[in-house]
């Protein structure tokens, strides 16, 4: 098992890279990812993205998952659905998935999506 300190050393070794949590669904290990995200926040200005098959509305109901949400900038939520696959989408595989501005959504108490297009490929948070 890799410690938070070891992961932070690797993350901080590239000053230009941001951080993405994905694969194996980070929400299954929300407490550990929240700890890592908190360390990233405290030691850098890196943005943190998280990919999950769960919906934002369900994640905010779980205390550990909510704590992870409080530490990340962007959430791509929802399961990949083959029938809704769209190769023209940015940062997601199917049209049911949303790109969410997490901090703004938590503040406003509703989902605030980021609209990324070829004309606007970079999110402003």
UniProtKB/TrEMBL annotation:
Co-factor requirement: [4Fe-4S] cluster
Taxonomic path: Bacteria, Pseudomonadati, Bacteroidota, Bacteroidia, Bacteroidales
Molecular function per GO: 4 iron, 4 sulfur cluster binding; [formate-C-acetyltransferase]-activating enzyme activity; metal ion binding; ribonucleoside-diphosphate reductase activity, thioredoxin disulfide as acceptor
Membership in a protein family: Belongs to the organic radical-activating enzymes family.
Residue ranges of the TM segments: none
InterPro entries listed in its UniProt record: Aldolase_TIM (IPR013785), NrdG (IPR012837), Organic_radical-activating (IPR034457)
Record organism: Segatella copri DSM 18205
Enzymatic class: oxidoreductase
Record's function text: Activation of anaerobic ribonucleoside-triphosphate reductase under anaerobic conditions by generation of an organic free radical, using S-adenosylmethionine and reduced flavodoxin as cosubstrates to produce 5'-deoxy-adenosine.
EC number: 1.97.1.-
Keywords: 4Fe-4S, Iron, Iron-sulfur, Metal-binding, Oxidoreductase, S-adenosyl-L-methionine
The keyword Iron belongs to this UniProt entry's keyword annotation: yes
A Pfam family hit: Fer4_12
Protein name per UniProt: Anaerobic ribonucleoside-triphosphate reductase-activating protein
Gene3D superfamilies in alphabetical order: Aldolase class I
Recorded superkingdom: Bacteria
């Amino acid at each position: 098992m890799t410690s938070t300190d070891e992961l932070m050393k690797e993350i901080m070794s590239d000053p230009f890279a941001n951080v993405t949590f994905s694969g194996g669904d980070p929400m299954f290990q929300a407490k550990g990812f929240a700890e890592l995200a908190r360390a990233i926040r405290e030691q850098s200005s890196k943005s943190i993205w998280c990919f999950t098959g769960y919906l934002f509305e369900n994640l905010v109901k779980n205390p550990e998952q909510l704590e992870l949400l409080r530490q990340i900038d962007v959430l791509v939520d929802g399961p990949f659905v083959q029938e809704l696959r769209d190769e023209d989408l940015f940062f997601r595989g199917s049209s049911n998935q949303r790109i969410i501005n997490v901090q703004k959504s938590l503040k406003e108490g509703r989902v605030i999506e980021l609209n990324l297009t070829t004309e606007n490929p970079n999110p402003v948070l």
